[in-house]
Backbone:
């Protein structure tokens, strides 16, 4: 692709480094900015840079935060006795958007994956254990909201072992046929497991 | 959508203002930047801002340019006798990428559209006329590469009238069935016109 200006070429180059954005889309975005008000570009650039340079991580749950303690850890409205363990902060955003969970979180910062050289010591597991050990009020339940993959299962298994000495309930988010999905298009492993792990029918679903 | 940080919310807000990018995609892009090196974000922000603030327009053809005269106008390898008239600079990039055109350009900066309140005086038409009048060597051909829409046709008609006193050939890019397209899926207006405007068969296509 040829560009009439080095500035455009450079901007397209940078934008097309973003995931899922090719040169053509990058050019479209860049030309859009060029046609819009200068303030738009400045606000975009400033927003990205402020985010990248000023972002902090919560000292307690390791979620992204604007201060040393995130809003969820700081909130008195959230249940202190339940911790939901997730792989990374997009998972927190996803769970928060369901409006179905009112406890606290713990962000591992990854998942145990020997192939990628990620062991338990690379993750925020020790801080979870000491958080549970020192917590007052005492933690009653840890929900493992990890991806249903081999690595997720390995991490869940490791966490269960590490936490077995504490008197708490360890649960895992339900796996099965997605709501709105059609049985005939569900993969056989999910469908098979959903039959094995069948539940007593309840009217509220 | 709820965000754990005001910085993320702001960045997502700015990114999702780009055309074709929704909140979910914006969040994915923002989280990608957050996981990448700080330099990546800085380079992206700098690239966009430099483009927006330092871009210039060629004094002759009104294409985007790094200096007062664009590379194409400056080039001695391009044919001086042919000017291709386009609506806007993305069209220049599109035609350049075909590698089939070796003349100069003239960017109108828009198209005559009474509904949008854009008349001939809003466009770079006078500068095209004076460019043709003053050109040495004399301009032999003007190619109208405008969109095959009502506005494109209106603009082409107006330009033809304005340029009729000059001794030059005025041509228009070919319209018809797109190469690689299937006849049965071609819209009836295009197909109908392509039959009316049929050409003597030539072996080289």
Residues:
């Amino acid at each position: 692709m040829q560009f009439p200006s080095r500035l455009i070429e450079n901007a397209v180059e940078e934008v097309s480094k973003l995931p899922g954005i090719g040169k053509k889309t990058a050019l479209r975005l860049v030309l859009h900015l060029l046609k819009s008000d200068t303030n738009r570009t400045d606000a975009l650039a400033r927003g990205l840079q402020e985010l990248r340079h000023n972002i902090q991580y919560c000292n307690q749950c390791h979620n992204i935060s604007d201060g040393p303690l995130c809003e969820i850890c700081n909130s008195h409205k959230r249940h202190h006795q339940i911790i939901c363990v997730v792989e990374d902060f997009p998972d927190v955003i996803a769970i928060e958007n369901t409006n179905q969970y009112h406890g606290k979180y713990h962000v591992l910062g990854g998942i145990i994956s020997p192939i990628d050289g990620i062991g338990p010591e690379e993750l925020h597991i020790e801080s979870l254990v000491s958080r549970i050990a020192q917590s007052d009020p005492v933690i009653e339940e840890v929900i493992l909201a990890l991806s249903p993959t081999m690595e997720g299962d390995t991490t869940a298994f490791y966490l269960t072992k590490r936490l077995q000495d504490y008197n708490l309930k360890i649960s895992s988010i339900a796996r099965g046929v997605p709501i709105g999905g059609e049985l005939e298009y569900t993969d056989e492993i999910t469908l098979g497991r959903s039959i094995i792990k069948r539940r007593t029918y309840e009217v509220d679903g």
